[in-house]
Write a structure and sequence with these properties.
Layout (H helix, E strand, L loop, with lengths): L1 E7 L2 E5 L4 E5 L8 E11 L2 E3 L2 H4 L4 E10 L3 E7 L4 E7 L2 E10 L1
Antiparallel strand pairs: 1-2, 1-4, 3-9, 4-5, 4-6, 6-9, 7-8
Length: 102
Amino acid sequence: MVYAIVRAGGHQEKVSVGDIITVNRMKAAAGDTVELAAVLHVDGDTVIHDADKLAQVKVSAEVVDELRGPKIVIQKYKNKTGYKKRQGHRQDLTRLKITDIK
């Protein structure tokens, strides 16, 4: 079993070939190919975690599409002062399909 732990969009994800992951928005259009930085690489019994050897590991992914995350409602309230604030947020996301780990 071959998989890698990659750093993408401020998070670390465990990926193998064919996986589809969702990360924070990347500056790439649908159909583009991006390279992700590997933090750990596992190939059967061999585990690579040395920084020099990880520089040689390439994890390629194809941008499938861009989407928006679920709505998050933020509410603030202070008792006895009449202060109420409500705002929402939707994170911009990018969906990636892992095409190759070498």
